[in-house]
Amino acid sequence: MSSDNTNTPQTTQEARMGEGVDSRFNSTLREAFGSSPFILTKFDKFMNWVRGSSMFMLQFGIACCSIEMMHTYGVKHDLDRFGAGVPRASPRQADVIIVPGTIVSKFAPRMKRVYDQMPEPKFVVGMGSCTISGGPFQEGYNVIKGAEEVIPVDIHVPGCPPRPEALVYGVAKLQERIANGESAPVTVSPYELEQFGDLDDDELVQHLADQIDEDELVMRYDWAESPSQ
Amino acid sequence: MSLEEPSTPELDTGETLEGVDYDALESLLGEYAIGRESHVNAEAFVVRPDEVQAALELLRDEAGFDHCSCVTAQEYEDRYESIYHLRKYDDPTQEVGVVVPTTKDDPVSESANEVYRTADWHEREAYDLVGIEYDDHPDLRRILLPETWQGHPLSLDYDQEQPQVVEFAEHANPLREDHAADAQSDTMFLNIGPHHPATHGVLHLKTTLDGETVADVESDIGYLHRCEEQICQNGTYRHQIMPYPDRWDYISAGILNEWAYARAAEDMADIDVPEYAQVIRTMSAEMCRIASHMLAVATFALDIYGDFTAIFMYAMRDREVMQNLLEDLTGQRLMFNYLRLGGVAWDLPEPREEFFEQTRDFLDELPGKLEEFHDMITSNEIFQLRCVNTGVLDPETAKSYGATGPVARGSGVDYDIRRDDPYGYYDELDWDVVTEDGCDNYSRVLVRMREVEESAKIIEQCVDLLEEWPEDERNIQSNVPRTLKPDADTEIYRSVEGAKGELGIYMRADGTDKPARFKIRSPCFSNLQTLPEMSQGEYIPDLIASLGSLDIVLGEVDR
């Protein structure tokens, strides 16, 4: 807007916006603000809206579901339409980790390490049945029965594997919850040392049990009785 | 299929024009053979545990069995047993088994590592899961399970509910050992993975670097060991096993894997498959191969160019088309569960004309799309700089490691089960086996891209056949008993050409409706073993390119 057209009558909006505002920056959103370039909101609400609208995903593939996850990022389903489709290779740059696959005893510590490296606030989408309960592999000797044994999960997307549409829906739901400031407190179940196999509870067993830090264990001792089964 | 006459009148010991003469092999082995067993696929000789090397060496050098495709370990009530499944790269229908029994008290047998390099990992797996120990093995450690694991899960007395101590602290600082090492050391230790974009899943490479050069690389696998063999052993033949093969090589190669199980089980229980179903199987399997190779090319481009470029997106676009076709056919995008013992689950979708038309549309557009890929990948100078003459794997090394599939064919080893040990409808159709002599990363990619063309040829012929098929002869399923109980002690090793190479299944029946031993011979497991040979002495970027060109899928490596 040039300064020499002072004679032409201005609308209130133009007058208030003043000079120096390039029309390129006046997006639909800017127009929606109407005559006032200011909005009044709570800081938390603004931050939640920002977080939900721009999420960086961790580029993280485990098993079969990661193939469908790639398709979700790919041309047809294009998760980026929803402001959540930029995969970052480093956990230190990511907000959301999609856990796409079966977690086994050897991988669980590594996954927790990756999760721990993500900056707060961070969110987890569990993709597929394996991250819910171990899925079709639940009876395997080596399989962790759900991602929640290791890290807290915000959204579960069921399926084996879920279709890309389902994953898009799950991510959109997560964005909605974040924007609304909802975050259900999810707690990771502790690894209770209720029994030490079928050994008699004698001094030696007690001694061994004392040596083990229950919070440190990847797999539950009492699998058969595990509440996730 | 090549129509050239085989020109090999020069025969190995024990080889006749009809196949293998097992009596001649027995006399070749002489006193090494202390017994003889009959498996469905081949005869097997029993060898003393301390004479394994000598016997295998004879079979390799004198009788020409240069391919150790699989090592199966299992426990019986009274003994342990390792079975070496040997065949020839020139003619995989010529097979022989070497059975090595060991006692329960002292399960030690001689390692075959000196004869076949591939036995290294196979024997480590046997030790890990079943508990047989191998003398003279260079590095007998657990391979799939954490090192803190107690017991051997596929042994008979394993208690699955026993406590296992696997701690988070175990992996708290993977670099600790290196930091503790001598500070004067000239080399640097670098972990690649298990979470890394270039490892195609959860592979861990322990790399020792000398400057920018790879001095040593050791693959640490088992981060996706989902107990597939145990789960198949707990499932009934008829229906409960078939969903799992989809999840071995999960890159849309489901039907190829299902076929491996279907072929083994059908041959074991002597089930016929109607011709019409065989044509549908052949067509859908090749559709899977195209989808699988597309992803291989896409992720390889991701490794080389380092970002989600157009190549990745184009490949995804084309895969979507293929997945839509497969979804129309099978009802699922990825985990098809389409094959049944004795046939397929259902006939082609109605209206058939629409399905044929869509398939033809894809095939018509394919050459143009491949041209695009060639423009962006193989004729790109940057790509060629990264791939030509890097990751060289010479044919002899490839054979010794049991490499198969595009990895072997990229090294000039002309080996394709579809042609050499025909199944399905392949021997009725006109197609070629693609080989390249470059032995480098570039050749392996080229083989995959040219195989897509061959697969398209096969699909086209199948579509023609299916279109013409008389309506009253469309039999998709033969009669199969509701409960399948193969005779006790029937043993079989059968393989098909999966997307990554020779995918084999060993099964032993015990008279019940579930297999007593179910062993998966994964092509990726053997192919991945060649990685150190390809990358030692090369730069790190070449290591990444080599890994990408192997096109491993961890679900199949770890099973």
From TrEMBL, chain A:
Residues 1-14 have a biased composition (Polar residues). GO terms for molecular function: 4 iron, 4 sulfur cluster binding; metal ion binding; NADH dehydrogenase (ubiquinone) activity; oxidoreductase activity; quinone binding. One of its GO terms (cellular component) is respiratory chain complex I. The keyword Metal-binding applies. Its cofactor is [4Fe-4S] cluster. Residues 1-21 are annotated as: Disordered. Residues 64-174 form the NADH:ubiquinone oxidoreductase-like 20kDa subunit domain. The keyword Lipid metabolism does not apply. GO terms for biological process: aerobic respiration; electron transport coupled proton transport. Keywords: 4Fe-4S, Electron transport, Iron, Iron-sulfur, Metal-binding, NAD, Oxidoreductase, Transport. Belongs to the complex I 20 kDa subunit family. NCBIfam families: nuoB_fam, PRK06411.1. This is NADH-quinone oxidoreductase subunit B. The lineage of its organism: Archaea, Methanobacteriati, Methanobacteriota, Stenosarchaea group, Halobacteria.
TrEMBL record, chain B:
The keyword Membrane applies. It catalyses: a quinone + NADH + 5 H(+)(in) = a quinol + NAD(+) + 4 H(+)(out). PROSITE patterns: COMPLEX1_30K. It is an enzyme of class 1 (oxidoreductase). Residues 309-559 form the NADH-quinone oxidoreductase subunit D domain. Keywords: Cell membrane, Membrane, Multifunctional enzyme, NAD, Oxidoreductase, Transport. GO terms for cellular component: plasma membrane. In the C-terminal section; belongs to the complex I 49 kDa subunit family. This is NADH-quinone oxidoreductase subunit D.
